[in-house]
Amino acid sequence: MGDMIRNLGKMYMNGEWVEAASGKTREVLNPATGEVIAIVTEGGVEDVQRAIEAARQAFDESGWRETSARHRADLLFALADKIQANADELARIETLNNGKPLREAESDVDSAVSCLRYYAGMVTKPHGQTYEVSNPNMQAMVVREPIGVCGQIVPWNFPLMMSAWKLAPCLAAGNVTVFKPSETTPLTAIRLFELMEEVGFPKGVVNLVLGEGKTVGAELASSHLVDKVAFTGGTETGRSVMQAATGNIKKVSLELGGKSPNIVFADVDVNVVVEYAMFGIFLGSGQVCSSGSRLLIQDDIYDAFIEELRARTALIKVGNGMDPDTEMGPLVTRQHMQKVLHYIEIGKQEGATLLTGGRQIVEGEFGKGNFVEPTIFTDTTPQMRIVQEEIFGPVLVVQRFKTEEEAIRLANDTVYGLAGAVFTSDAGKAMRVAKQVRSGIFWINAYHSAYDQAPWGGYKQSGIGRELGTFGLDEYTEVKQINFNTSLQPLGWFKGKQ
Ligand code: NAD
Prior knowledge:
The chain is built from 15 helices and 23 strands. The chain is of the alpha/beta class. It has a seven-stranded mixed β-sheet, with helices on both faces. It has a six-stranded mixed β-sheet with strand order 10-9-8-11-12-22, with helices on both faces. A three-stranded mixed β-sheet has the order 1-5-4, with no helix packed on it. The longest helix is centred in the first third of the chain and has 21 residues, at 102-122. The mean pLDDT is 97. Bound molecules: nicotinamide-adenine-dinucleotide.
């Protein structure tokens, strides 16, 4: 137990830290070593119901939703400052719990800070509209109001950053939250809620529940006291969240999976673009929703590109994220590693060529963690499961194309539509491809970059709604039209008069 972080992580509801009514606990593991790094309370349906009731009361009765935007902005700015002041600790916890290299965790902490500041700044700026309508005595206007109690559910791949993406717009807009991190990676969220308590969010406005998706998460999605559910996670889970939300016609936003195409045309500098292709898939050990997990390479440079890619991928330094030399960390859990290894077996059985990698790394200390070699498959066909399904690991599948039309057809040939990229020096071609690929995020000569200002989310089965930017705030507001009659006269609709 080298790095024990918490003896008992608790839930935060109605301004208090509480244990699960059942008394159950859960061990939290370090994916690089298999060691227990924390014990946390394991919430159940009864606990989440208490948190939801506290949130409902805070929204309906505490006056939070009528607080000034300036006040809410001040709280969010203060929270951003607190995160920044505790950045090293938060990054370290994230690496120990999720496994990602420390430099990635540090970048996530930065992103969380900047997202909180972005929405804190935005909410005090003008929003709403007025309209000229056909009756000159009427003034029509649109105001935005908070939706109410928001159930917010996040996955394990960006625990802190996703928390900020969810909490910042929600609270900025005057909503209250019942927030659920992944049961696998709850530690930075617990620390974040301690910082929220210090900052002084009122009782019941921010509530943290811990526990499994199928109990705690499902209750957030189905409870009639919850007005909106915001979910990030896998597409199958998203489907069940959407179904559960029908009972009270909850507002739903879903950020789901992907199988994003990274298209490389023959006019590029191979040496430069190979590294982007590697970054696209091996960042976060491939456990990134926007991973460029399908690499489409044009015929003329195919052999040269593949050779450079193979050679450089074999040099990636895999290891414990706490080691500053590590370039790629472990997978998040044993179970998830088994799933990724199973997909590698499927790829072999389907007849794809294993260009490099493909093995669990078991030598020495590696055997205690969940390490898989950076893996590349070539000679794939579009029907293969490894081409169609999200593997969510360090497994790249390569597809070969001849023409622009073929690249676009292949790029669009999955049920997903989260992200994509094109690399070319031909500006016209870049723009044509960008417009033809059916995805919510598209990079030209770049990969993975995300900005607070720019909307994030998917087409097709990659989701509903957008996070970040003005779009992200819109997802947490109801739109109300107010019609103001500036000159009240008898209506004259009914003839009879007493
Ligand atoms: P997951 O769907 O298993 O779990 C996500 C969260 O949902 C967890 O907190 C989990 O406890 C909860 N959950 C599970 N079952 C639930 C249910 N029935 N009802 C309500 N909540 C439930 O996903 P994961 O394995 O943690 O994360 C990986 C997935 O997340 C990948 O598919 C990835 O593409 C996706 N993802 C998408 C984005 C995006 O922005 N589009 C970002 C990150 C991750």
